[in-house]
Amino acid sequence: MDWLAALARQLTRFTAVVIILAAVAALIEPATFSWVKGDTQIAVLGVIMLGMGMTLGKEDYRILAQRPLDILIGALAQYTIMPLLAIAVAKVLGLSAGLTLGLVLVGTCPGGVSSNIMAFLAKGDVAFSVGMTTVSTLLAPVATPLWMMYLVGETVAMDGWAMFKFMLLVTLLPVVAGSVCNMLLHKKAWFAGVRAVMPAVAVLAFACIVGGVAAVHGGRFMESALVMLAAIAAHNIAGYVLGYYSGALFGMGVAKKRTLAIEVGVQNAGLATGLSAKFFPANAESAMATAVACVWHSVSGTVLGNLFALWDKRKAG
């Protein structure tokens, strides 16, 4: 099991590379990932959220209880900055309805499941990062449909109640199940081994989701590639900046500000991709935008974490 844990660490370390390779493979040979659709894609999303839940134990919930103000500030920043930024970027760049839908889906989803690793790389407050990811995920079944209805509900046909029920099933239930298993079985050696490899399973699952979208809609990517990348990059980078300075506004220290930047900027774009496929299956632009966001957020978050660490080294030197 040790070699599996070592492999899991490497896969987690090179998340962005794995996702990019899956996308390229799907573009070259769509049949490689064309099976990732419908109920299969939903099951893959559930596995990702189950893996996240398996990392949550009593200590994590104790942190939430001990630091309510930090978590409240983080949750408010997460669910105001990114949704409003998404619609603002869409209007400034004059995005099509499909690209706007995809960007808003990304913006209204909870924090990314890999953000905790990025916070660690950045020498941020990892406990704060875990707390923020947990709370934003638990709030997602309510917050995401409400924001979607408010921001794009008048221009895109959608069923907010159905999205709420779907997110309960795909996000909340697996997270709670994984967390309960962790608290009951954390002393079991076999469970510790399974938990150690789950981050790698999540990386492969994300890669499958992106590959599935690329297999189905990859031919449409070049039609709006440049404006799509510009919108995703602007949304993500502005999220980092505003997240950082929202921490400064409340007098947070350097570690917390870095964590808030990453937690606000890095979104669970894999979930956004699943929501796009489930509720807007005919919208190719939305599907591609959310899938590209998966890659971009993985790359940029890792780069930002390393840049923060490099800044510390230079200051120390």
From TrEMBL:
One of its GO terms (cellular component) is membrane. InterPro entries: BilAc:Na_symport/Acr3, Bilac:Na_transpt, Na+/solute_symporter_sf. Pfam families: SBF (PF01758). Keywords: Membrane, Transmembrane, Transmembrane helix. Coiled coil: none annotated. It is found in: Membrane. It is a multi-pass membrane protein. This is Bile acid:sodium symporter family protein. It comes from Neisseria leonii. The lineage of its organism: Bacteria, Pseudomonadati, Pseudomonadota, Betaproteobacteria, Neisseriales.
